[in-house]
Specification:
This protein has 28 helices and 33 strands. It is an alpha/beta fold and about 950 residues long. The protein binds zinc ion.
């Protein structure tokens, strides 16, 4: 766009007679400098409070904040998540809802404990010698520090919320509420203590939740082991051995059974020959699954064999084997048991079963009354009662176990395998399945939490829809929820177990005292006070064991709906939960189970998930690649609005790419939006309501712009309703750059600059520019929170804030589909003419398009599309001749003379001594514009 109109030589200076855009809204954003000042202004006028007060009585909209962990500076993932939440909240607020937002933090748990322990290790202190209350106080101080840092960083990002009343899981009221929620599960019977295998980190000495587990490649020793048959089964197999295959030799001391598939075909083989180095012995008889025979022979080096018999798995019912280390303390029977989960994908078709070390194994063992031995201690070493291996660490046990098996004749073959193996997300150390006494919430008891959770999932809206199946399949398959952790920084499981019966004490009065004391003193009370303070007079503390485990932090964050929404009298369930798609396994999941188990339904009506961050090549961000982008850097260099624009311009359903080039592009997008706002503001200079024309008197071009506004408004309202914002802000940007800057503004520049102020054309344009300003500043406000405020204040002053406004109510009669169709045709003809004129310009035949005269011929009917004057306006040429024929475009250099004021080239100028066209003469004569100056003045 060329904004300058300089009159031709020698003529009077008409600069004072034209309305060039004038605004205090600067071209350059200078966001890093300007944004903090805007924030300070909001703070000063208490914008949050005034928005809340003005929303009283409206339909509430509650997006419940999933708490980030109060540990370290914000990273880009936090920024992405919170900007999305903020934009959605603000859009609801401006669409007529009361969108109250309470940001929160997750404060307890292993990562902070780990940090404090790390500091201890550095200074040579021993954690076990620090009193628990002191340790907890240090964890609390650490969380407090980072909570404050993150809060300031979120505010700097422009995130609006009730920061003064934020929630934290470590607030005393939260700790009390979390204890109370555990109390609900205790009273309704779903909470139980049981010995069962849990994912255990020997390094951190605690059980881990599913969401705390990562899978990485791990190199394991794999072994093929003979189990001699001792009794039962078909007569032919007597004296043979069953061969199992396992990737965890350290679980052999925990073996208590062998699982087979009842429908799988098994073979009884006699080894006839074996290759060099093979441990197979000619003449020995072994059993394996038929489907796995070939890989089995290849692995074990058996070069010759004879099939002696074939059996279905079910034929093996009642067969008993011996542990290969029988005679060395492993003297129990090892029954063969049927299990549906046995496959012939790998191994031998017989599955080594250690009920302490696997979920399937545990369930199978429980069904058949097998012992669940405690073979491994907290630190990952075998317990003192484990024969041969006591005191050994399980991760160093592969060789000793192999050696013992070899010596006993049990080892048929060994190898190594790189496979996906569970690791702690914190310490990155490998995990083990280990049987320990833990507290569980039952999924399938009389409470039927699983069934109710699946029902709740069916009743929830998922955006995108795939989320439904993801979480449903996780809930359908998950084991009971292990809610206990053997750590110190958290909310204790406030339960007493009767030493005489092993039963937990289920007394609401005791739970009541726990909640009251926690509320007053925090959960520290559990450690600081004697048991009698909680038990009261009805129970003798000597008869009760006070549980010292703490609650899984996922249970804590899963209870936020209770202590943030319910306890504060906010609407429950929340309208929306919004997190990364990994939270199907994490926060969505735990919140769902917690609420279903205590209140019978999900705490949310809808769940929105977004993708993760990748760099411009689609790679994950990592320290080692050095491709990370820190939100603090982007804000300092470009401004928060650029980061926010990036979030809302991306398709958040997928992974979002970011890097220097993408940020540069966002800077370009931003500049176009800013220039659009600036041009509107400049062209509205001195605008008054008296200029406004009614819809019926507006030119078609203006009505077309209003039609486009009605379309964008509809798109925005659908997004508010559906929570699906994909494409909305790209559409607004496209509107600004293509429909406005490159088309509408370009055409109307002439009328706005040169028409007399009371011309209907100019008034019509300003009528529409007024609406454009109101629509664009409010529509952009949820995203460009700072820039929209600046563009609002540039017109209306600082008395009101754009964030106190509503999206303008678009009158239904702005929508005009027939007109839109017509103008699609006009624009396509315009593109053709523009191409033509561009070619003339390239050839030096014309300078600006105003020096051209265009001849358009149209097929029947279309010659009435626009008048020739309107065509001249729309094509930005001096004159247009229209006649009926097939569509044809012709342009040539216009005859006539250039108007010294508006530069149109017209015949009429020749006849005017002041070298003006009739329109410009009229404008000057009207006395409504400035007066020309003599040349050279
Ligand atoms: Zn003129």
């Amino acid at each position: 766009m060329n904004d300058t109109v300089i009159p031709a030589d020698a003529a009077p200076d008409y600069r004072n007679t034209v309305f060039l855009p004038r605004t205090a809204f600067p071209m350059k954003g200078d966001l890093p400098k300007r944004e903090p000042a805007t924030l300070a202004g909001w703070e000063k006028r208490d914008l949050w409070d005034s928005v809340r007060r003005s929303s009283a009585g409206r339909t509430p909209f509650v997006l419940h904040d999933g708490p980030p962990y109060a540990n370290g500076n914000l990273h880009l993932g936090h920024a992405l998540n919170k900007v999305l939440k903020d934009a959605i909240n603000r859009a609801h607020q401006m669409a007529g809802f009361d969108a109250h937002f309470i940001p929160g933090w997750d404060c307890h748990g292993l990562p902070i404990e780990w940090k404090i322990e790390e500091e201890y290790r550095k200074s040579g202190r021993n954690k076990d010698e620090v009193p628990v209350l002191q340790f907890r106080a240090e964890c609390r101080a650490y969380a407090e520090k980072w909570l404050a840092v993150q809060r300031d960083e979120f505010i700097r990002l422009g995130v609006m919320g009730d920061w003064a009343n934020r929630y934290a899981t470590m607030d005393f009221a939260s700790e009390a509420a979390i204890a109370g929620e555990i109390g609900r599960f205790l009273m309704n019977g779903a909470l139980y203590r049981g010995l069962r295998p849990v994912m255990w980190s020997p390094v951190e000495k605690t059980a881990l939740a599913e969401a705390e587990v990562e899978y990485h490649d791990h190199k394991s020793v794999t072994i093929w082991v003979r189990f001699p048959l001792v009794s039962g089964g078909p007569a032919e197999i007597a004296g043979a051995t069953i061969v199992i295959w396992t990737t965890t030799p350290w679980t052999m001391p925990g073996n208590r059974a062998i699982a087979y598939g009842p429908d799988i075909d098994y073979l009884l083989l006699e080894v006839e020959a074996a290759g060099e180095g093979s441990r197979a012995r000619a003449g020995e008889r072994v059993m394996v699954a038929e489907a796995l025979l070939a890989p089995f022979l290849a692995e074990t080096g058996i070069t010759g064999h004879r099939v002696l018999g074939s059996f279905k798995g079910e034929d093996l019912a009642g067969t008993i084997a011996a542990h290969p280390l029988r005679g060395q303390g492993y003297d129990y029977d090892v029954p063969l048991l049927p299990a549906e989960y046995v496959t012939t994908e790998a191994g031998t078709g017989f599955v080594h079963t250690a009920p302490s070390h696997g979920e399937d194994d545990f369930i199978l063992g429980r069904a058949h009354g097998l012992e669940v031995p405690e073979t491994v201690g907290d630190d990952g070493t075998y317990n003192p009662w484990v024969p041969l291996f006591a005191g050994l660490h399980v991760f160093k046990a592969a060789e000793p176990v192999c050696a013992a098996l070899e010596a006993a004749g049990g080892l048929l073959h060994r190898n190594v395998l790189v496979h996906s193996y569970p690791h702690s997300w914190r310490s990155k150390a490998p995990l083990i399945f280990r049987a320990t006494p833990q507290w569980f919430i039952r999924m399938d008891g009389p409470e039927d939490i699983r069934g109710h959770a699946l029902q709740a999932i069916a009743e929830t809206r998922f955006i995108p829809e795939q989320g439904r199946n993801r979480i449903a399949s996780m809930v359908a398959a998950r084991p009971d929820w292990c809610v206990s952790r053997q750590r110190a920084w958290g909310v204790p499981i406030p339960i007493f177990v009767d030493r005489r019966t092993g039963e937990p004490l289920r007394d609401p009065a005791v739970m009541e005292r726990v909640v009251t004391l926690f509320k007053a003193e925090g959960a520290d009370a559990w450690y600081a006070r004697p048991a009698g303070d909680f038990l009261g007079n009805a129970y003798d503390p000597a008869n009760y064991e006070q549980v010292r485990d703490i609650i899984d932090v996922w249970f804590e964050s899963g209870s936020t709906h209770a202590f943030v929404l319910e306890a504060r009298g906010m609407p429950w369930p929340a309208d929306l939960y919004l997190e990364g798609s990994d939270q199907h396994r994490g926060w969505f999941h735990s919140s769902l189970l917690e609420a279903v188990g205590t209140r019978g339904r999900a705490p949310f009506k809808a769940v929105l998930t977004h993708g993760f961050l990748v760099d411009e090549q689609g790679r994950k961000m990592s320290k080692s690649l050095g491709n990370g982008v820190e939100p603090q850097d982007v804000i300092a260099k470009l401004g928060a609005d650029i980061l926010r624009l990036w979030v809302m311009s991306s398709d958040a359903r997928d992974d979002l790419s970011i890097g220097p080039e993408i940020l540069r592009q966002q800077g370009e997008l931003y500049r176009r939006l800013r220039n659009t706002l600036r041009w509107i503001l400049g062209s509205l200079d001195g605008f008054s309501e008296a200029e406004v024309l009614p819809l019926a008197e507006l030119p078609e071009l203006e009505r077309w712009v209003l039609h486009r506004l009605s379309e964008l408004d509809a798109q925005l309202r659908v997004a508010v309703e559906s929570h699906d914002w994909n494409g909305v802000y790209p559409a607004i940007h496209h509107f600004c750059s293509q429909d406005l800057s490159a088309f509408y503004f370009d055409i109307r520049k002439d009328a706005l600059y040169c028409d007399r102020p009371d011309s209907l054309r100019r008034r019509g344009a300003r009528t529409v520019l007024d609406q454009l300003h109101r629509c664009l500043t409010t529509w952009l406000a949820p995203v460009l929170v700072f820039t929209a405020e600046e563009a609002w204040a540039a017109r209306f002053g600082g008395e009101t804030s754009v964030h106190e406004q509503q999206f303008p109510a678009i009158p239904p009669d702005w929508r005009d589909d027939a007109l839109a169709e017509k103008w699609t045709r006009v624009r396509s003809i315009r593109r053709e003419v523009t191409t033509h004129l561009e070619a003339m310009r390239q050839a030096g035949e014309i300078g600006s398009s105003l020096q051209a005269e265009v001849t358009l011929s149209f097929p029947d009917g279309e010659d009435q599309l626009l008048s020739k004057e309107d065509w001249a306006d729309n094509l930005i040429v001096s004159s247009v001749v229209v006649y009926p024929a097939d569509l044809m475009v012709h342009a040539e250099r216009a005859e006539g003379e250039k108007c010294a004021r508006c530069w149109r080239v017209l015949d009429e100028v020749k006849r005017n001594s002041a070298k003006l066209c009739m329109r410009c003469t009229d404008a000057i004569d009207s006395g409504l514009v400035g007066q020309p100056a003599a040349p050279g003045e």
